[in-house]
Amino acid sequence: xxxxxxxxxxxxxxxxxxxxxxxxxxxxxxxxxxxxxxxxxxxxxxxxxxxxxxxxxxxxxxxxxxxxxxxxxxxxxxxxxxxxxxxxxxxxxxxxxxxxxxxxxxxxxxxxxxxxxxxxxxxxxxxxxxxxxxxxxxxxxxxxxxxxxxxxxxxxxxxxxxxxxxxxxxxxxxxxxxxxxxxxxxxxxxxxxxxxxxxxxxxxxxxxxxxxxxxxxxxxxxxxxxxxxxxxxxxxxxxxxxxxxxxxxxxxxxxxxxxxxxxxxxxxxxxx
Length: 272
Prior knowledge:
272 residues; 9 helices; two-stranded antiparallel ribbon; mainly alpha; globular
């Protein structure tokens, strides 16, 4: 017997399709581009609201945004976390800045942070409330996935799109080694805080009782769409060396993560 499909299910899949298409076909209209930019965070809010409940997903979002913004603020003003860098102050590039940091950057933290968090739970087989060492295990794996994602697109954002500038450059396509260790530290921090919050405040009945494989597969699609948007640039006419290298990282880095999560989900019993 087929499970009844709700309007929210249709909405989430519609958003995923639009994200996948617009990752390949660049939207140049500024207003429409902003709408497209907001689609991933909209999707994960709808998905997380169904999985964890609306109160918990809202607090999870606030944790990521607060710690992410604080990390960026300290990074810009001290250079300790990521290395010495600054965001392009042009409103046409990053929008408005608060303390030298574009607040909208935290939206990407939320959308990919939630996605990596769910993929980690799938791979580790932790679908319900987590306790003990699993809090650290999921946080560590999620942060690793975030670093792989960052390595796949960060140089393009800084060197090609000029969203930010590294003052002293670095060994990784002009970016410092510290950028990625700092990124791991910041993301690991908010994943640990999320895990501790859910351990402390959530109840077993807060979670979706019987998540389907299709429902859990949705974040894998979002993660894969992000990887594909990077890989597809390699097949454009005369791709640059940077595009080809980042395509390899996205294909075999992000692609491996998505593949493992998919196989883990498909081979796990107890879902419908």
